Predict the 3D structure of the following.
Amino acid sequence: MEINHYFQPIDVDWIESLQNSGRKRLGDVIVAHTSSGAMPDPEQFSLAIIGVPEDRGTVTNMGCAQAPDEVRKHLYRLFSHWNQVSICDLGNLKNGHRLEDTYFAFKEVVAELVRNKVIPIVIGGSQDLTYANYLAYENVGRVINIAAIDPMFDLGHDEHELNSQSYLSRIILHQPNFLFNYTNIGYQTYFVDQESQVLMKNLYFDVFRLGNVRANMEEVEPMVRNADILSIDLASIRHSEAPASEQSSPNGFYGEEMCQICRYAGLSDKLTSIGFYELNPSLDHQGQSAFLYAQMIWYFIDGFVNRQHDFPEQDNDDFVKFTLHVEDFDEELLFLKSKKSSRWWMVVGVKDVVSKKYRRHQFVPCSYDDYQAALNQEIPDRWWKVQQKLM
């Protein structure tokens, strides 16, 4: 499928000034779609940057469509420390006549990249584009998990509306449904009504309050490792660190914490697309927010380069197996520890033949703390939730 007609080239002046510096920056490494050359063939690369200058779906953050090029200006200046990475920049997606047309084009592009094992790094634009990102996996025919770093759940109040604060409802209601799990990382309780919290619980989704996450950042790693899509709202970062959103507030993650999360995402063999949304350059202070997003993308690339390729899709000798019996529980718990990375998984058994399409979801990323809980005769929450969905 040809996707080049969906894109317009990016400006070349500031890129050429970097390339003449004689130092190995990302501007020297990234093969960019500029007006002076043809669009690179994404199938020849491992990572593809996509700018989506679309903000018609935002609620209060008009102007975030200008973010892609602002982030690029900082990203291209960062130094490359990797010899074995291939990155292209496809340029900016052309906006459709209607917002739905942009969704369609974005969906088609992401689906084509994922089919060819190319990871799109999406620079938005508003976060409702996560819905179009999700639809791409319907084209691929894959049941997936979504993780969002967001101070709220973006459920909206009207099941018929679709915008940056309601896209999750549209994903949940979409038929056929191919969302296996949704994880919210860092929600702030005063932004979430009680009905939404009950809905998350009833759907067996994983939601984690900001304070609990920040108290143990290492526990974020298995949360992110379980996702196929990671969607990041700039408002999840405290205003003092990243002011460029109408939804920014005094509380949120620190910049270095977000960089750590993005490196976790890069390390995950399961994650196949990531999006950075809701950055409004008109509200930015000396480009601080765009600079932070650029650094987060740098850390994602660094994680990707260091992937261990140890997702346990098949029974092999790369894992140490631990089988535990919990009192008053019929099934034994099986834990796997990777010999390559020392990361942990739980295996949730599935007896129903129809459920074989969920096989990759049987392997649940977890931590050593989950194993310790099982040793103490406690069934980890992660195991219970997956087991309920697979029944």
Summary: The chain has two domains: 4-305, 319-390.
